[in-house]
Every structure is written in structure tokens, then in C-alpha cells.
Design goal:
Two copies of one chain form a homodimer.
Chain A: H1 7-22, H2 29-36, H3 43-46, H4 50-75, H5 82-99, H6 107-115, H7 120-141, H8 148-172, H9 178-186
Helix pairs in contact in A: 1-2, 1-4, 4-7, 5-8, 5-9, 6-7, 7-8
Chain A binds a DNA duplex (30 and 30 nucleotides) through residues 2-5, 7, 28-30, 39-46, 50-51.
Chain lengths: 202, 202
DNA sequence: ACCATATTATGGTGATTGCCATAGTGTACC
DNA sequence: GGTACACTATGGCAATCACCATAATATGGT
């Protein structure tokens, strides 16, 4: 194993950025290589699987970065502090959208929307990324639930809301709703294991 | 106003179908016209604005159809029956995904993901469609809230979760989580105006 | 110096992209 | 029968698409 050249990594990073803002099909290899500075001539040396392989790797990079960020916040969550954890997830997404002028989409969401109907490989990778986020969220709220399954269900609700909100906020160019929606979801967080607040009245 | 030819409508309907399953950029005009049976020669007669105009109209058709469906369910919701309304929304989405073998995406979500960064016109149309759905949902749960704003916030949470769940379920090829997630969201529905269940404990 | 391998340049493949100009056909109204 | 208009066929535009074959270069170890 020898070394050198960040062309490969540059290409993957550019793919993450472009797939987030404009999706898969709208991103041409030419634009991708131009923006990354990576040489065009070596693309199929680094990615013999072509554009699909690049998408898989971009998905994996984006997936594990986001998972780490969630895990970091989950680990920093003290017992009883779970509402702050949930609110922080929404807050972070809102901030990212604002900082990017509402261009920061989600690689998984975009690839899924364009490809998961016809490409099982991509669909599986999208699913794997999303599930890793759900599990990371579940870790952060597990103390509030009696069973892991219940925590995972709640985490999936958070994940779905975050994803949907990102889409809505991009179109709206506003993050005004994020805090209020975090509150709604916090309100369905059980206050203590086995005592699911709110659910008793319905 | 004279007459004839369903070519225009056929094209819009095909656009809805294809933009749902594979998004905007991956859908070529050729494929679109082939599948719709609409003649190629008359495309720019019917849509002088080109592909973007077609997207706008597809979005509008998809938007108002979905809005009607939500409104129908909202109107059929008796006071006190709001949890059933929420559950029905998730149930309907799950059924649609199953029936389509998980190809049934959302036009707004796909167009938004690919275009809302660079095309303000499309972004506005996406936002308008989504807001119309949020308002329709808010109508169905308004009785549970003291203010319209609170109902809208809750409705936006439902909308975001539905959107995110659709994306997740397509990749996962499973609707297993829908019912449980509906339950989580029902649990944050106030039991009576002004008494927001669950929120008092956090 | 030599070789093996890693990386890139060059140039092009055929196919497809969205778009459009021109001409022609169909039907309806007078 | 003639005019007006709705609609479609044809053919081709330049540009881009993903992809690849071949050859050149760079860089490491020996």
C-alpha cells in the first residue's frame, strides 16, 4: 500500500455537497470533477463502479458524519435531560439550513427519492444510513423508555420529523417552525419509564 | 374555448407519476411523452415554459389531489375523533406505498430536494403545496387546540413526519413503523383545548 | 538504474438531453 | 368553401451525459 493523491477523497466530498443541494441525476460527473478539482482522467480508476459507486460512498460518508454528530449529543445527555437532546437535534438542523442559505439537503433523502424505486443497492444503503441515525437517537432517549423497541419507535418519529422538516424548511426558506415542532415532539416523550405522558388520555 | 385532445392532461399525469417515482432530473421528456402517449411534436405548444412549467403543473395537480383527500378525511372527523383522523393519514400513506410496491414518492419532496436550492419559483410552489396540506390537517385537529397557530404547529409536525416516513419506508420497503409512529404523535395531541397532555410534565 | 504500481491526460464513444423552427393536418365556425 | 385556430409530425439543434481505451507520467521500493 503506497500513497498520495487526495483526488479520490475530494471527489467524494464534492459528491456529498452536490448531492445534498441538487440531488443525484442533476449532478453531472463533469461538474463534480470540476468543483472538486479532482482530475477527470482518473475517475474510473478510483471509482470503477462509476457514478453509482460514488453515490454509495458519498452516502456512507454523510451517514457516518451525521451519526457521529448525533452520538456526540446523545452521549452528552444526562438522565432527565432528554428534552434538551431532542431540541438540540432540531436546533442543529435549523442552524445548518440557515448557514447554508437553505441549500443543505440530505443525501439519503435525495438519493432515496430519485433512486430507491429502481435501485435496490442504493435503497439498502439509504436505509442503513437512516437506521443508524435512528439508533443513535434511540440511544439518547433510551432512559425514558421501558423497552428498546419503544425508544426506537420514538426515535424513528424524531427522525421522520427532522427529515420532513428539512424538506419543508428548504422550500420555505425559514426555520421558524423548528422550535415549536420540537416542543410538540418533546411533549410525547414519557416523563419516566412506563408512564407515557399524554397517551393515557387517548 | 374550443375543444379536443387530452395530450396536455396526459402529459401532466405522466409527469406526476414519473416525478413521484424517479424525480425531476432523471425523468427525460422523451420518456415522459412515450409513457403518456402524448405526441412529442406538440409539447412546446402545450407547455411553452418547457419542463419547468410541466413540473409546476404536476406539482399543482398532485398538491390539490392530496389536499382534497386530506380535507375529505378531516370533514369526516367528528369532535373527539381526532386521533382516528391522524391514524388514518398514516394508514393511507402506508397503504399507498404498499400498493405501489414502494414507488409512490412525493412530488413536492422530490422537486424540493432537487430544485429548491436553485429555483425560487419551484421552491415557492413546493411550499404552497405543503402549506395547503398543513392547513388541511390543521382543520381536522382544530377542535383540540385553543388557537389556530397551535393547531397549525401540530399539523406541521404531522406533515413533516408523514413526509419523512414516506422517504424512510420507500428505502426500507416496509410500512411496519407507520402505526406505532401515528400513536406517538397522537399521544401529543391535547385531550381538550388548553389542556395539552404530556406537556405539563416536561 | 530498473521495475511495479499509482495516478492522470487525452480524446473520443454513442446516446440522450431539453429545446425549437418549419410545415402540415385536423376540426370548427361562418 | 374558406378562414381561423388547435394540434401534431418531422427533423435537427448544440450541449451534455456516463463511460472508456490508450498512453503518458509520477512515485514508490529494490
Amino acid at each position: 500500500m503506497v500513497r498520495t493523491s487526495n483526488a479520490r477523497q475530494d471527489a467524494v466530498e464534492a459528491a456529498v455537497r452536490l448531492f445534498r443541494t441538487q440531488g443525484y441525476s442533476a449532478t453531472g460527473l463533469t461538474q463534480l470533477l470540476e468543483e472538486s478539482g479532482a482530475p477527470k482522467g482518473s475517475f474510473y480508476f478510483h471509482f470503477p463502479g462509476g457514478k453509482e459507486q460514488l453515490a454509495l460512498e458519498a452516502l456512507q460518508v454523510f451517514g457516518s458524519e451525521l451519526r457521529s454528530r448525533i452520538q456526540r449529543r446523545a452521549a452528552a445527555t444526562a438522565t432527565g435531560d432528554e428534552p434538551a437532546f431532542i431540541r438540540a437535534l432540531f436546533e442543529a438542523t435549523a442552524r445548518e439550513l440557515e448557514a447554508s442559505d437553505y441549500t443543505a439537503g440530505c443525501v439519503a433523502s435525495n438519493l432515496g427519492g430519485e433512486l430507491s424505486s429502481g435501485n435496490r443497492t442504493i435503497a439498502d444503503a439509504v436505509n442503513a444510513a437512516v437506521q443508524s441515525w435512528v439508533e443513535a437517537i434511540a440511544d439518547g432517549v433510551a432512559n425514558r423508555f421501558e423497552t428498546r423497541a419503544a425508544a426506537t419507535t420514538y426515535a424513528a418519529t424524531i427522525m421522520a420529523s427532522l427529515s420532513g422538516m428539512r424538506t419543508m424548511a428548504r422550500a420555505q426558506r425559514s426555520t421558524a417552525m423548528f422550535a415549536a415542532i420540537a416542543d410538540v415532539l418533546v411533549s410525547s416523550l414519557p416523563s419516566t419509564p412506563g408512564n407515557k405522558s399524554g397517551s393515557d388520555t387517548n
